[in-house]
């Protein structure tokens, strides 16, 4: 009998991309299964990157009506007769929610005695590893398949020699929540000009969230020094195709990073308050760019020790010259 499997993963677009290996491994184990992913509406773009998900369910848990949204999701789940549910998230409420789905096989992280009682499999949560591996721990009782990196389905372009594609922005939601994860726009402008002056063909891309940093680059860097592709990619799939055609990719800690990882493109990433060891694979293709002068004892602090970044932002004290020199190596 064809299995109906529900995955639940609430988070940003980057989280959904990092969650893909878990779904892919299960699809390999049960190729005839029907896979449904429950996620936040803001992350629906992941569907343009993969063919492994058959259906989606949405719940806007970051909105004003979180519990109403969860109740609606629960009702939608009841109609589907799923055989297995697999959910990320370490909140103690997760196990209660999974129990209320009445799905026979319920898998989630072990968040204490309640999860051990309500889940059929309470998986130890190991946060001290690459996030894709952390998520993949959830499915290892169901399959021997090990999908270590995100995999996406896009039309790949042949990499153009000597090109550096730059995607400088981060999501506006993270900024509004007080999470500053990249260097100032003026530094990005100097990076664009510095790479161009050293003979690189520089391409700059971005979406609606990146308007402010792109406008600063446009104001400070002569237009003939770089190719401005801002707004040229209409969706995530087109951005992925653009990334696939670059020899090197330079970005902030954001969703495009995880797309580049999936494509195997040589990638350089600005890291400040977040932990690079948890967000990039140790495969030599992704190079973290971090402040060499930061002495903050809490670094990396975001999520583990703080929910917002501090005002000092010593961890983002990275000069344009440092960034340029690393990319040129």
Count of alpha/pi helices: 12
Q: Quickly give the CATH architecture of the largest domain.
A: 3-Layer(aba) Sandwich
What portion of the residues fall into strands of 2 or more residues? Answer: 15-25%
Query: Alpha-carbon distance between the termini?
Result: 54 Å
Q: What is the H level of CATH, i.e. the homologous superfamily of the largest domain?
A: Glycogen Phosphorylase B
Q: Percent of residues in helical segments?
A: 25-40%
The averaged pLDDT comes out at: 95
Tally of DSSP β-strands: 12
SSE succession: EHEEHEHEHEHEHHEHEHEHEHEH
Based on helices, strands and strand pairing, what is the structural class? alpha/beta
Task: Determine the CATH topology of the largest domain.
Answer: Rossmann fold
Using only CA atoms, what is the Rg? 21 Å
Total separate domains: 2
> What is the top-level CATH class of the largest domain?
Alpha Beta
Q: In order across it, which strands form the biggest sheet?
A: 3-2-1-4-5-6
Structure report:
Helix content is 33%, strand content 17%. The chain has helices at 13-29, 66-78, 93-100, 113-118, 131-136, 172-176, 185-197, 211-220, 236-244, 255-263, 276-279, 320-328, and strands at 4-8, 34-39, 55-58, 84-87, 105-109, 121-123, 160-167, 201-204, 227-228, 246-252, 266-270, 286-289. The strands form two sheets. A six-stranded parallel beta sheet has the order 3-2-1-4-5-6, with helices on both faces. Strand 5, helix 4 (113-118) and strand 6 (121-123) form a beta-alpha-beta unit. It starts with a strand and ends with a helix. The relative contact order is 0.12.
């Amino acid at each position: 009998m064809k299995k109906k499997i529900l995955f639940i993963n609430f988070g940003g677009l980057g989280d959904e991309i990092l969650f893909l290996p878990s779904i892919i491994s299960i699809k390999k184990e049960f190729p005839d299964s029907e896979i449904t992913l429950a996620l936040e509406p803001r992350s629906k773009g992941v569907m343009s990157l993969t063919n492994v998900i058959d259906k989606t369910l949405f719940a806007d848990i970051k909105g004003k009506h979180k519990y109403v949204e969860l109740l609606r999701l629960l009702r939608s789940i009841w109609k589907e007769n799923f055989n297995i549910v697999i959910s990320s998230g370490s909140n103690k409420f997760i196990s209660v929610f999974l129990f209320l789905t009445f799905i026979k096989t319920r898998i989630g992280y072990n968040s204490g005695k309640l999860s051990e009682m309500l889940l059929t499999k309470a998986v130890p949560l190991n946060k001290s590893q690459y996030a894709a591996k952390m998520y993949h721990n959830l499915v290892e009782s169901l399959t021997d398949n090990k999908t270590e990196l995100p995999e996406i389905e896009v039309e790949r372009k042949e990499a153009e020699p000597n090109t550096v594609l730059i995607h400088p922005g981060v999501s506006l939601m993270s900024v509004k929540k007080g999470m500053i994860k990249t260097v100032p726009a003026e530094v990005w402008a100097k990076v664009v000009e510095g790479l161009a002056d050293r003979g690189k063909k520089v391409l700059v891309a971005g979406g609606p969230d990146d308007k402010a940093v792109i406008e600063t680059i446009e104001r400070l860097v002569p237009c003939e020094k770089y190719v401005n592709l801002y707004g040229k990619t209409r969706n995530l799939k087109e951005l992925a195709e653009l990334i696939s055609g670059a020899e090197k990719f330079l970005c902030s800690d954001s969703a495009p990073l995880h797309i580049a990882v999936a494509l195997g493109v040589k990638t350089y990433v600005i890291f400040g308050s977040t932990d690079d060891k948890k967000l990039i694979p140790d495969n030599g293709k992704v190079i973290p760019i971090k402040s060499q002068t930061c002495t903050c004892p809490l670094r990396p602090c975001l999520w583990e020790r703080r929910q917002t970044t501090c005002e000092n932002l010593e961890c983002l004290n990275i000069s344009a010259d440092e960034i340029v020199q690393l990319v040129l190596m």
